[in-house]
Amino acid sequence: MKRMALLLSIPMAALAAFAACKAASRPVPAWSVSDGLKVPESVLYDRACGFLYVSNINGAPTEKNGMGFIARLTVDGAMVDPDWVTGLNAPKGMGLRGSTLYVTDIDRLHEIDIGTGRIIKTHEVPGARFLNDIEVGSDGAVYVTDMVTNRLHRLFGGAQAVWLKLEGYENANGLYLDRGTLYVGTNQGVVKVDLATREFALYIPHAGGIDGLRPHARGFIVSDWNGKTELIAKGKPPEVILDTTAEKINAADLEYIPEKRLIIIPTFFDNRVMAYTMTN
Fold first, then answer.
1. How many whole angstroms separate alpha carbon 132 and alpha carbon 106?
2. Is the pTM of this model over 0.85?
3. Which domain holds residue 137?
């Protein structure tokens, strides 16, 4: 009875905050890699090979210096090849289909053969200004965001074109494709796009901008580049998983491996890739 009376005496707002805190996923540091990394922007897990691919800008985000590269790591954080693919311009988002890795290159899209680590084809993207994230459909269609123009480009059948303009939204960035639905991270939150009709609407409002966007059993894990990583879901308040904003450690285009409960975050100007294990 005393416990019940105590709970009744606590304001509802405080109880809600306590519940949110209790429900929040608390990550445990797993590993950190810095050797050979230079402005790492994106991490992608290749289940078939067991490697992590890390795109490194190696300069300014819009600098065409030919110094960008992709490194390969193991899921345990061991550096396999820091210079696996070289000669890129500020590479960012990546996507996989079979033995081909796609990577954005400011205003170009490269196809890389995973077996050799060589660029086998480059697609010029006219009008592009800041190509960012990539998702690849089961039909082979490659979707790419442009964070400046807020356009979605599509490469399909060897031809690329502007597929959709996200009118009313800003900084289109992270992508996640689930069958017939494409989810896009923007400054306003997660936008849901129907692939068949190209109709779109705000699905999960979220302030602060979304860089990385990965699915989770309870919604999406998102990063905001400044350093905050959160779990968000429709109709629920965001749960802060990790926040390194005060330390000025960025959180760019992250990866999440659900079977390992592993969040892998490239820290951009901090020049590291940091992995954490989710505890719930």
1. 7
2. yes
3. 2-277
CB within 8 Å of 139: residues ≥ 6 apart: 156
Neighbour-count burial of 157, counting CB atoms closer than 10 A to its CB (0-12 exposed, 13-18 middle, 19+ buried): exposed
Q: Looking at the 3D structure of the chain, how many domains does it have?
A: 1
CATH number at residue 142: 2.120.10.30
DSSP-assigned beta bridge partners for residue 182: 177, 193
Q: What are phi and psi of 18, to 5 degrees?
A: -65, -45
CA distance 264 to 258: 11
Residues in the chain: 280
Q: Cβ–Cβ contacts within 10 Å for residue 7, how many?
A: 9
Q: Please give the Cα distance from 57 to 39 (Å, whole number).
A: 5
Segment 74-86, tens digit of pLDDT: 999 999 999 999 9
How far, in Å, CA of 86 to CA of 253, rounded? Answer: 20
Task: Give strand pairing partners of 51.
Answer: 46, 74
Query: How confident is the model over 145-204, as pLDDT tens digits?
Result: 999 999 999 999 999 999 999 999 999 999 999 999 999 999 999 999 999 999 999 999
Q: How far apart are CA 87 and CA 147, in angstroms?
A: 23
